[in-house]
Write a structure and sequence with these properties.
Structural class: mainly beta
Strand content: over 45%
Radius of gyration: 13 Å
Number of strands: 11
Shape: globular
Order of helices and strands: EEEEEEEEEHEE
Distance between the termini: 40 Å
Helix content: under 10%
């Protein structure tokens, strides 16, 4: 059983930056494609960015392209989401999720939240002045 732990959320002013981290508890992420999803108040959960197990493929939601960067360090067993130029509409709970590598494309994975094998409990990001 893979357990995922997100960290790095917090309160930031518009235009600021945060870096989220996703780490496993008691296992390795190396065999999984990883996605970052978010849920804003009153809205459905949506895919933000996804990365394949060996970081060969990445994808981003149109709303975050050019501002967010997903990366992974398999040696450190961690996946990151660097978020720059944050906007109030980026506010929400950010979840890390994992799916066994190579089953579906990262584009398909990020397009919907169904089918992910494991989820973290989320970290809250609030963008406000």
């Amino acid at each position: 059983q893979l357990q995922l732990v997100e960290s790095g959320g917090g309160l930031v002013q518009p235009g600021g930056s945060l870096r989220l981290s996703c780490e496993p508890s008691g296992s390795t992420l190396n065999y999984y494609d990883i996605g970052w999803f978010r849920q804003a108040p009153g809205k459905e959960r949506e895919g933000v960015s996804c990365i394949s197990s060996r970081a060969g493929s990445t994808t981003y939601a149109d709303s975050v392209k050019g501002r967010f960067t997903i990366s992974r360090d398999n040696a450190k067993n961690t996946v990151y989401l660097q978020m720059n130029s944050l906007k109030p509409e980026d506010t929400g709970v950010y979840y890390c999720a994992a799916k066994w590598a190579g089953i579906i494309s990262v584009q398909t994975m990020c397009a919907g939240i169904a089918g992910m094998d494991y989820w973290g409990k989320g970290t809250l990001v609030t963008v406000s002045s």
